[in-house]
Amino acid sequence: MLFWRIFKPTVVGVRALIVDGERVLLVRHTYLRGWYLPGGKVDRGETVYDAVEREVFEECGIKIRNSRLTAIYSNVEHN
CA-based angle 60:62:63, to the nearest 5? Predict the structure, then answer.
């Protein structure tokens, strides 16, 4: 925790919005309550596109291609 307070590293994450008609793909994690869009942390040297494709496959078993960036958000409380 001291490392995070001193150096305040930026963590980049991705989320995927996958829509099929009027249905939206959501996942439940074992470590959080509720439903979420699939996603997670971008690894060092990885593009956001590679990360979102990897995370969706890891969490849902779905291979996606041709993902596109829709929005960028920043949590000033965290970073």
Answer: 140
